[in-house]
Amino acid sequence: MTLPTNSWRRQRNTATGFTLIELMVTIALMAILLGIAAPSFVTFKRNSELTSIANNFLAALNAARTEAMKRNMFALVMPANNDNDWSQGWNVFVDTNDNGVFDSGDIVVMQQEAPPPYITLTGNGSTAASRSYVRYDGSGFSRPMGGNPANTTLTIARSDASSDVRQIRRIVVAVTGRPRVCTPRSSSDTTCSAS
């Protein structure tokens, strides 16, 4: 059976789809929207990584303190390469031979890999020594090697965020051994200073 010519034309006119121009306009609009959203997504991701590194370091300090009290021995958090470069990651260990260095006889509690290159870690006190560390005794107190007990601060910051203080996390270890994380509200914030 053959269809009349008018019926065939009616079916052809009702066919739906996109024209090439409509498709190009849609792709162009999506490209513009993605161009606007991508930089804020990168900022969000890097802020999340900054918070994650600070929380990982806080967890490392709490693990060292717990192990020191559990075993009644010194436990340390040190840079992974036994010097003062925290950007290479860090080790948490029980110092069984009490030499203040991570070596083969020590009990590994946890290890942290290196943070991204745009995250900087700088400290004061024992965290800025030529061989940086945070050391806990069997009572859970922070005890420097051969010195008077003092608060220690490690500053974790995004190096790509210029001078924005919201891109800084500070981990303060009190003489009592209790660590805390803070974010400075301004450059003159005394509740979260680096000293």
Q: Explain this structure to me?
A:
- It is a single chain.
- The chain is an alpha+beta fold and 195 residues long.
- The protein is 31% helix and 21% strand.
- The chain has a 4-stranded antiparallel beta sheet with strand order 3-2-1-5, with helices on one face. A 4-stranded antiparallel beta sheet has the order 4-6-7-8, with helices on one face.
- The longest helix has 52 residues.
- It is elongated and about 80 Å long.
- The mean pLDDT is 85.
Q: Ranges with pLDDT <50 over ≥5 residues? A: none
Radius of gyration, in Å, reads 28 Å
Please write the string of helix (H) and strand (E) elements: HHEEEEEEEE
Q: Total strand count, please?
A: 8
Strand count, sense and barrel status of the largest sheet are: 4 strands, antiparallel
How much of the sequence lies in strands comes to 15-25%
Number of helices: 2
**Overall geometry:** elongated
* Main sheet: strand order: 3-2-1-5
Alpha-beta classification: alpha+beta
Q: Give me the oligomer status.
A: single chain
Q: Quick check: average pLDDT? A: 85
Between the first and last Cα atoms, what is the distance in angstroms? 93 Å
Task: Assign a percent range to the helix content.
Answer: 25-40%
List the main descriptive attributes of the protein structure presented here.
195 residues, alpha+beta, four-stranded antiparallel beta sheet, 8 strands
How are the elements arranged and paired?
Layout: H1 5-13, H2 20-71, E1 75-79, E2 90-94, E3 107-112, E4 119-123, E5 134-136, E6 152-158, E7 168-173, E8 179-182
Antiparallel strand pairs: 1-2, 1-5, 2-3, 4-6, 6-7, 7-8
